[in-house]
Amino acid sequence: MWMDVISIAIGAFFGANARYWLSTWIKSRVKWDFPMATLIINSAGAFVLGFVVQLQLSFDWNLLLTTGFLGAFTTFSTFKLESVQLHAERKWKKVILYQVVTYSAGLALVVAGMFLGSVL
Amino acid sequence: MKRFLMIGVAGMAGALCRYFVGMGIGVFGGADFPLGTLIVNLSGCFVLGFFTTYLFRLTILNTDLVIAIGTGFLGAYTTFSTFSLETVRLFESGDAILAVTYLGLSFLGGNLLAWLGFTLGERRFVRKREAVKEGDL
Description:
Chain A: Fluoride-specific ion channel. Important for reducing fluoride concentration in the cell, thus reducing its toxicity. Chain A is mainly α. In chain A, 84% of the residues lie in helices and 0% in strands.
């Protein structure tokens, strides 16, 4: 029980920071009026999760990386908030594009990550 | 350095909340439908929407705290990677109906609750601002 909590806490500490600093850096580089940072982070996280679950890691390492790091690195709330903000600015096409690309990339990249993990 | 620590600690708290809500719900939800992640993600959408248009606009929190709560806690509480994996696993196990239900509820519910939180927060903020203005007269 305590080992689970510690594993998740360590992973999440770094996962949350990785998302913040990476997203700050992406926003400073990509000046588009589109939530690229969250899209890149969520897509990358989905791919890595698919890969990691195929690696047969120990229970604690698995919790640290999946529930802790990747769970904190990727986000659902910011993704939906950004969609609502685009909607509030009446950028309908961008809302649709953002949602379609996020969901499609998420599912496709989990599968791709699983495939890569299983062949390695 | 301070921001790094605050985001990290808030992220820990968010991820552990997700884990324990998931475990608590798992007892009721059964193993085949990821009800825990769904409830975590939908509640997080509402709260982030509400905080963005209300709490974060009041001048009571400093920037570090707003980032710790919004990005650290709520960002770590909700998750996209686990949601994607659970959806793929439902499809894999032949539960196409459950998979589409999960995807649909996350998609519609997330949009609805983020919008609801955002709109309610906005209204509350405007009302509060009006009240402050009237108080000045």
